[in-house]
Amino acid sequence: MSSPRHRRMTNRDLPQQLLKARDALMSHFRPVLNHFGVTEQQWRILRALDEHEQLEPRELCELCQMLSPSMAGVLARMEELGLVRRARMADARRVMVSLAPQGDALFDEIAPLIERQYRLMEKAWGKQVLDDLSAALAGFIAAQQTPVPQVELPPGGRPAAE
After folding, report:
1. What is the mean pLDDT of each run of 10 residues along the chain (162 residues)?
2. What is the pTM assigned to this prediction?
3. Count of CB atoms within 10 A of residue 32's CB?
4. ∠ CA(99), CA(102), CA(103), 5° rounding?
């Protein structure tokens, strides 16, 4: 048996914790989305459009945490499926995205099931757990307005490994 290794880092591994928490949370919603053939990315877009009615693709990227090339592909597929529609604005460079009637109807089917799943999670863990998690995340996101100095890097960095 090997001896325990001296830990070189003693801080929390917040990125890993956030990934684990996200995956754990989404495991409760994936069955609903899969049942309707909707991806997580598509659901985030449907939800954002339901909340905001219409958005520019760049706004959707920000709200849905998606890179522009991914958003373009997902929106094209959703448009093919009749879930969203894109309309050019008077300024032909701008496009607005909104729910198509089929996307609106699909949202109406999925949303109550997502709401019920939240109630089941609240019943299992207590509403306070989800409220505290939401508040902690909102607080962390709001704190990002405060600048944090970047650690000084040594000269001669290495390119990222692929």
Report:
1. 70 89 96 97 97 94 94 95 90 88 97 97 96 95 94 87 74
2. 0.84
3. 18
4. 40
